[in-house]
Each structure stands twice: as structure tokens, then as C-alpha cells.
Design goal:
The chain is mainly β. Helices cover about 10% and strands about 55% of the residues. The chain has one domain.
């Protein structure tokens, strides 16, 4: 499970999204690697989902960008 994604070449100047982060009227609840896209095209794409009063929806998609992934280490 991905807990945090940092997008950009230099982590100090990069964007970061993490589980529990407020995003407009919602909260980030999941960050997932699009495995189908990776198998089909060989590119790594990540989808960020938020939850709000309307339910859970895809909020952002990160494609072909350098990223640092932080995994949730709770078992």
C-alpha cells in the first residue's frame, strides 16, 4: 500500500500527496499504481483517490513523472 507519493526530480521542490491529506472538500484515501497501464505500455502511472460527501472518486493521475514512493509499513 502506498502511503505517500513525491512527484518531481528534486524532493525539496516537489509536490507531495499522502493518505489523509485534505484535498479541496475531500481527503486523499488511496494512491495506486495503474498496473494495467504498466503491463500494457511499460509506463508507471499513479492514480490518487479522494473521498468526500459525494463518495470516493479519482482526483489526479500522475503519468511519466519521476516519483518517490513511500509505502505504509504497518502489517
Amino acid at each position: 500500500m502506498i502511503r505517500k507519493i513525491i512527484i518531481g526530480i528534486n524532493p525539496k521542490d516537489a509536490l507531495a500527496y499522502f493518505i489523509g491529506m485534505r484535498a479541496g472538500e475531500g481527503t486523499v484515501v488511496a494512491i495506486e499504481l495503474d498496473e494495467r497501464d504498466y503491463i500494457k505500455n511499460g509506463t508507471k502511472s499513479y492514480d490518487i483517490f479522494i473521498e468526500s460527501e459525494e463518495g470516493t472518486m479519482k482526483w489526479k493521475r500522475i503519468e511519466n513523472m519521476p516519483v518517490i514512493i513511500e509505502h505504509d509499513c504497518r502489517f
